[in-house]
Amino acid sequence: VQLVESGGGLVQPGGSLRLSCAASGFTFSSYVMRWYRQAPGKGRELVAAIISAGGSTNYADFVKGRFTISRDNVKNTVYLQMNSLKPEDTAVYYCNAHSTWLPDYWGQGTQVTVSS
C-alpha cells in the first residue's frame, strides 16, 4: 500500500498550489479520502474529505471557500486545490485513506510553506 503526496512547496500569500496523492495497493474507490495537515508544534487537523463516489465533500471552516478536494477513481488520485493561501496554512499536508472496517492508510506528507 502506498500513498504518495506531491505538489507542495513555497508560495507567496494569496497564491495557489495543487496537491496530489497517488494511491496504490488497495481498492481506492472504496475509501473515503482525506487531507490532514500538521503545523509545527500543533496537532494534526482534518482539512477536507471526499467520499468514495466523489459526490460529497466536507471542509474545515478555516479552508471553506479557498480549498477544493477532488478525486479521480480511474487514476487512483486525490487532489487538493488550495487558493488564496495564507501564512497560517503553512504545514505538512498528509493524505489519508479511511474505511470504517479497515485500517487507515497515510502518506508521508508534503510541506507547504506560505511566506513572502
Overall mean pLDDT stands at 96
Instruction: Return residue spans where pLDDT drops below 50 for at least 5 consecutive residues.
Output: none
Calculate the terminal CA-CA distance, rounded to whole Å. Answer: 37 Å
Radius of gyration: 13 Å
Estimated share of beta-strand residues: over 45%
Report a brief summary of the structure.
0% of the residues lie in helices and 51% in strands. It is an all-beta fold.
What does this entry look like structurally?
Helices cover 0% and strands 51% of the residues. The protein is mainly beta and 116 residues long. Strands 2, 4, 5, 6, 9, 10 and 11 form a 7-stranded mixed beta sheet that branches. The chain has a 4-stranded antiparallel beta sheet with strand order 1-3-8-7, with no helix packed on it. It is globular. The termini are far apart. The relative contact order is 0.32.
Key phrases:
0% helix, mainly beta, 7-stranded mixed β-sheet, single chain, globular, 116 residues
Helix/strand layout:
Blueprint: E1 2-6, E2 9-11, E3 17-24, E4 32-38, E5 45-50, E6 57-59, E7 67-72, E8 77-82, E9 91-98, E10 105-106, E11 110-114
Parallel strand pairs: 2-11
Antiparallel strand pairs: 1-3, 3-8, 4-5, 4-9, 5-6, 7-8, 9-10, 9-11
